[in-house]
């Protein structure tokens, strides 16, 4: 009887060993554009930057329980109507994940992995801004748990809207 219960638990994934390991963190892509250089440095206009931050995540499953999570951070800085600089960084990580249920994988890949990657992306953005000759751009921490919850809510609303139209 005990063997049957153990077998049933293992079949449901409850008895399986759960593993989460960061295998590698790496910069997948980075770009810096400053279309107003050198004019922006020559003109003594008022520096009142408007910063727009855009985040995007995607994941890819590979064999052997490996997952790649890619966090794309796009920063656009304008002064008035002029785009002063645009940065896009794709920070990636390779994660070993096994023994987790499907319902636990969503938050792990959609929230926890991007949370691990963001400090690396923030550091790269900071460095690119400095190399571009501009004042520091400290990015505030991001609550990826809240963003993931918002994403799920939007999916539920879209599914509900889809059901009512059919």
Descriptive report:
There is one protein chain. By secondary structure, this protein is of the alpha+beta class. It has a single domain (17-156), classed as SecB-like (Bacterial Protein-export protein SecB, Roll), CATH 3.10.420. 40% of the residues lie in helices and 36% in strands. It has four helices and four strands. It has helices spanning 2-11, 39-42, 102-131, 144-165; strands spanning 19-33, 49-61, 66-79, 82-98. A four-stranded antiparallel beta sheet has the order 1-4-3-2. β2 and β3 (66-79) form a beta hairpin. α3 packs across α4 (144-165). The chain is globular, with a radius of gyration of 21 Å. The termini are far apart. Mean pLDDT is 88; it is low at 1-13.
């Amino acid at each position: 009887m005990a063997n049957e219960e153990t077998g049933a638990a293992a079949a449901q994934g409850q008895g399986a060993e759960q593993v989460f390991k960061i295998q590698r963190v790496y910069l997948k892509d980075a770009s810096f554009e400053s279309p107003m250089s050198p004019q922006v440095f020559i003109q003594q206009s008022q520096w009142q930057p408007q910063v727009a931050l855009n985040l995007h995540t995607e994941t890819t499953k590979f064999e052997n329980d490996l997952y790649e999570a890619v966090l794309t951070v796009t920063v656009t800085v304008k002064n008035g109507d002029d785009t002063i600089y645009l940065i896009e960084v794709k920070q990636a990580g390779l994660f070993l994940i096994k023994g987790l249920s499907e319902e636990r994988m969503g938050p792990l890949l959609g929230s926890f992995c991007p949370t691990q990657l963001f400090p690396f992306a923030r550091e790269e953005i900071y460095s690119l801004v400095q190399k571009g000759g501009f004042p520091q751009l400290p990015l505030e921490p991001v609550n990826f748990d809240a963003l993931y919850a918002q994403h799920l809510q939007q999916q539920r609303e879209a599914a509900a809207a889809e059901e009512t139209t059919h």
